[in-house]
Amino acid sequence: MTDAPSLLPLRPNVGAALFNRRGEVFIGRRTDIKTPNDAPGIWSMPQGGIDADEDPAVAVLRELREEIGTDRAEILGHHPEWLSYELPPELIGRALGGRFRGQRQRWFALRFTGEDADIRLDAEDHPEFDAWRWVPLAELPRLEVGFKKPIYAALAVSFAGYAESLRRESFFF
């Protein structure tokens, strides 16, 4: 670890805005990050690192499988730019293995093709989430999402068309 956090790189990462048939997005309560008052409750969409030479579209499906126990999804599209965030000072040197100052992310919008029962937070030995729910995309920036709020605000705008399209489709099924 370095004494100069600004010298640490950003970790390459993918994020998944997983939409159900009603156009709501999956959000899980993280097990590893607490709210500012140290209570459980930081909510997050699935995300994770991109392995060396891994295609981001492959990585996002792998991350879904690892974090929520299913990859029953199809990619609808992605945010046009890579988004990045810096960790809060108290997490630098602790989070992300202490090797990164934040993350550079490719965010994907995906349609969930499974059933709620396919979501298994306990699929891995060390679950990332201890609870989950579907929420309207527009509510993401108002939830307790910690330092990711600016990214979620951008995604709420960028992916609004996918949410609306899925809501309209759900009226016919």
From TrEMBL:
Accelerates the degradation of transcripts by removing pyrophosphate from the 5'-end of triphosphorylated RNA, leading to a more labile monophosphorylated state that can stimulate subsequent ribonuclease cleavage. One of its GO terms (biological process) is nucleoside phosphate metabolic process. SUPFAM superfamilies: Nudix. InterPro entries: NUDIX_hydrolase-like_dom_sf (IPR015797), NUDIX_hydrolase_CS (IPR020084), NUDIX_hydrolase_dom (IPR000086), RppH (IPR022927). This is RNA pyrophosphohydrolase. Keywords: Hydrolase. Residues 9-157 form the Nudix hydrolase domain. It comes from the Bacteria. Its cofactor is Mg(2+); a divalent metal cation. The gene is rppH. GO terms for molecular function: bis(5'-adenosyl)-pentaphosphatase activity; guanosine-3',5'-bis(diphosphate) 3'-diphosphatase activity. A motif (Nudix box) lies at residues 48-69. Its EC number is 3.6.1.-. It comes from Endobacter medicaginis. NCBIfam families: PRK00714.1-5.
